[in-house]
Amino acid sequence: MSAKDFTRRKFLVQSSFLGCSLAASPLITPISLASTASDHRLVVIILRGGLDGLDVVGPFENKEYSTLRPSLLPQPSSAIPLGGMFFMHPDLLALHPLWEAGELGFAHAVSTPYRDKRSHFDGQDILEAGMVNSDGQMFRDGWLNRLLQHMPKSHAQTAFTVGRYEMLLAKGEAEISNWAPDTRLDLTEQAKRLLEISYQNDPLFRNNLAEAIALTSPMAAISESLDPLEAMQMVAKEARDLSGYENIAAFAAARLLEETRIASFSINGWDTHRNQRSALKRALRNLSDVILRLKNDLGPIWEKTTIVAMTEFGRTARENGTKGTDHGTGGLSILVGGALKGKQVYGDWPGLREQDLYQGRDLNPTQDVRAYAAMAIRGMFGTNVETLEKHVFPGLDLSGATQIIR
After folding, report:
1. Can you tell me the distance from the alpha carbon of 398 to that of 390, in angstroms, rounded to the nearest whole number?
2. What is the CATH number of the domain that holds 269?
């Protein structure tokens, strides 16, 4: 195949053989950045797929828990006690020092106002839009973008993506510009040539690519006669050799050390219908790597940083027949950072008895997950309650909400 025949459509089709290694690359992972007049930093991580909060932080010694989840119950020696009834999943052990330092916390039994249909697409749209659209119309903007419209001297950038939609979270009237980092944060000539070939006949993509390249530091040039399929294999090798998500964190941290004050991106892999122990292990380690990379790279700025990790819904209280869990309702939000009042499991625990479960199947949500994002924003940026309740998260009631920022 000649270079001139290698269209963007053919790239997307033929790159499917690269599988998850390419899917982990920041080239196809949306990232949103915003600068504001504040000196604090907020990182929002969307955990796509429906995190099983009961497996991450659970009352593992509770008799109802062990009855509902016999094959998911951790070994007693491996679970990490958090005080009281709760234990943390052993694959978050790397984050335990943050818990002890008061820089890690959890909000349990939380959910958006979304109920009953348990669709990833609808759930994620509502999570990123920050409101329920009762008239059935499509969401047009996200809560992060609406926040920026009420913050002085703010400017947003949202990542350009290959084969993926942009993040609704940052979509809206606030000014947007597009860019895309690569897995090494400095686009190689191989990857650059591949993308130039792919987008040469598409003005929109070509211009966005040019802007992306302007934000990277190209490495030493090589021959422009590179075969496109060879280039894809080289890009895949880079993705296999490196942790894509950790590099997203490194890119975000580099920006947060400069003018950026708000960063958002997503981590996939939380849809654990089968073999949950194995799948969740990978996902939790990815999340741990991201958090620790942010802490390490931010240095003293970490003291002014809060990370809010949110998911579209929780999972069923009972395990299923394939040693996994299905789409549920009440879930868990993970809160991290030097600015956080951590070492707490926030929320009102509903219990796991049959009569306590939502529709007899799910952890019953007792608090709105949006409230924790709102209180992080209020605590760090001073945004007033009326703006948060009416404009950023329409319909949210912050009366009695917990202060989570130091």
Report:
1. 11
2. 3.40.720
